[in-house]
Every structure is written in C-alpha cells, then in structure tokens.
C-alpha cells in the first residue's frame, strides 16, 4: 500500500515544508512530518521509523533525528502547521456538499491505564475509559471538522464548537443526542439546519421557548423528504468503517499512544492517510 500512497505524500510534504522552514535546525520540519507519518502508516512508534532499515531506499530521509527530537518537534507550531496544511489541501481537492453528518467515535484504553487525560464516559456498548473522536463529515475525503476529547466530553457541546468551522449552508444530520435547543440555534446561526430526531418523541415540546431551527427540524422529520434526508446519516457509519478497516486505519490505540496531545496527533495522522487513500481510489 505504501508504494501507491507514499510518493504523493512525500511530494506534498516536501512542498509544504519548503514554504515553512525553521532556521538553525539540523532536521527540517518536513523530515519530522514524514517520519511521523511513516510510523503512523505502519502502526509503529517513531523510534521504529528512525531506523534506516525500516525504509525503502528511494524514500529514506538523508539523515534521521533521535526519536526524542521528533517527539519534541511534533509539539512545535511549524510542524503542526504542515499537518494542518495537509488537512486543508486534502479538503480542497473536492467540492463540499450541502449535507454533513455529525457523530462521535470512542477510542478506549484499558480500564487500568494510568493515562491522566483519559476519562470515563459513554463508549461502544457501555461505559469506557479513554477518548472520543468527534467529527462533522460530508462527501469529502477529509472531515469538515474534527476534535479529539476525553471520553466524558459532551457530544453536543463539542459539536457546537465544530459547527463554527463549516462554510456555506445546508443540513447537518445527527442522532437524538444532538437534539438540544442550543445546538439547533448554533447550527442556524452558522447557516445550517440541524436534523436530529427528538430525544423524547412521545412527549410534547413543552412551554419553554424553542429555537426556530428546532421547530423546523420537528416539522421536517414528519415529512417524507425529511425522513429520507435523515437516512443519509448512515453514510457516516460507512465513512468510519473505511477509516478503521484499512491496513493503516484507526484501530484501537497502541499502548505507546497516550495523553491527549499525542492521541490527537496520532488520530490526525490516520485521518490524513485515510484521505490520501480515498482520493487515490476515487481518481
């Protein structure tokens, strides 16, 4: 798989790195990013990717920094900027649709883990300890917005932050957990109509003021168009399925990926590799 994906990743990272040099360092930012993505591609720690024998000769960096140098430099703004620019480039290669889906994916760790950033919360099939990947994802290879938070972060509150990243207008489809007045209001202010089934469908809407977006959502889901529209939300399950099912996909967190910042970078690398894979197979 690396033979198909890596040449394009290599060229793009080199180009972005040349526009973002850091004076006075032995190893430039693009080298740090490439070693990190190479480790991510094979589900290995960065010290594995720092060994020349684990690279194909044609793609091997001219020199290798120490693993501790990579860990330190990955936290720096110039290196993070390259990763963020990779995201923007991958999004820009496709036109956004008017329908987006919002969801969360648990990333659990052992219940006995000493990770101080991992929290208990609603996971897959019950309570779990770890983190959760929150996404707004449409028809493009890379999500429109994403966040990595501890497992106990409330999905509607994270969604309120992610909605501000959306451009244009359209629909955001979610399940019943997102049916709160404030989220309907935020979506409307961002130019989107939130479509989420009511948490308590057999009860009235009460006497308190309801956001116009929530009232429109209730009316919309009583129409055939609204019901068919919400069925499209199943596509995010396919998106997440593809993200986790490839050989380099987002599998259970390796035991060396702990703490919030490290997990966030690991997930970002997986999202970038998945987007390259999807774009490669759609071209």
**Mean of all residue-level pLDDT scores:** 92
Which CATH architecture of the largest domain is right?
2-Layer Sandwich
The arrangement of helices and strands along the chain is HHHHHEEEEHEHEHHHH
Q: What gross morphology would you assign?
A: elongated
- Share of residues in strands: 5-15%
Q: Whole-number radius of gyration? A: 21 Å
CATH topology label of the largest domain:
Nucleotidyltransferase, domain 5
Instruction: Give the helix tally.
Output: 11
Q: What about the largest sheet?
A: 6 strands, mixed
Number of domains: 2
Beta strands, count: 6
Share of helical residues = 40-55%
- Cα-to-Cα separation, first versus last residue: 16 Å
Low-confidence stretches: none
CATH class of the largest domain: Alpha Beta
Derived from helix and strand composition plus strand pairing, the structural class reads alpha/beta
If you had to describe this structure to a student in words, what would you say it looks like?
- It is a single chain.
- This protein has about 280 residues and is of the alpha/beta class.
- The protein has two domains: about 1-90; about 100-240, Nucleotidyltransferase, domain 5.
- About 45% of the residues lie in helices and about 15% in strands.
- The chain is built from eleven helices and six strands.
- The chain has helices spanning about 1-20, 30-40, 45-50, 65-75, 75-90, 155-165, 180-190, 210-220, 225-230, 235-245, 260-280, and strands at about 100-110, 120-125, 125-135, 145-150, 170-175, 190-195.
- Strands 1, 2, 3, 4, 5 and 6 form a six-stranded mixed β-sheet that branches.
- A hairpin with a 7-residue loop joins strand 3 and strand 4.
- Helix 2 packs across helix 5 (about 75-90), helix 2 packs across helix 11 (about 260-280) and helix 6 (about 155-165) runs parallel beside helix 7 (about 180-190).
């Amino acid at each position: 798989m690396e033979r198909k994906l890596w040449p394009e990743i290599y060229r793009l990272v080199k180009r972005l790195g040349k526009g973002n040099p850091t004076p006075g360092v032995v190893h430039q930012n693009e080298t740090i990013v490439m070693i990190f993505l190479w480790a991510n591609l094979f589900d290995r720690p960065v010290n594995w990717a720092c060994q020349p024998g684990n690279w194909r000769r044609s793609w091997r960096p001219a020199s290798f920094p120490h693993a501790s140098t990579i860990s330190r430099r990955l936290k720096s703004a110039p290196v993070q900027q390259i990763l963020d620019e990779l995201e923007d480039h991958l999004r820009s290669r496709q036109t956004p649709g008017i329908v987006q889906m919002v969801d969360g994916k648990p990333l659990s760790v052992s219940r006995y883990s000493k990770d101080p950033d991992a929290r208990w919360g609603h996971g897959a099939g019950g309570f779990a300890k770890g983190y959760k990947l929150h996404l707004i994802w449409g028809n493009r290879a890379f999500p429109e917005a994403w966040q990595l938070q501890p497992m106990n972060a409330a999905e509607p509150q994270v969604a309120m932050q992610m909605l501000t990243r959306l451009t244009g207008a359209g629909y955001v489809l979610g399940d019943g957990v997102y049916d709160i007045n404030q989220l309907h209001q935020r979506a409307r202010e961002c130019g989107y109509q939130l479509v989420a089934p009511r948490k308590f469908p057999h009860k009235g809407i009460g006497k308190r003021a309801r956001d116009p977006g929530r009232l429109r959502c209730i009316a919309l889901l009583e129409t055939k168009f609204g019901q068919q529209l919400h069925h499209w939300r199943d596509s995010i399950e396919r998106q997440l399925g593809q993200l986790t099912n490839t050989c380099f996909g987002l599998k259970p967190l390796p035991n060396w990926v702990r703490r919030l910042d490290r997990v966030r970078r690991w997930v970002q690398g997986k999202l970038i590799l998945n987007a390259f894979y999807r774009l490669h197979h759609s071209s």
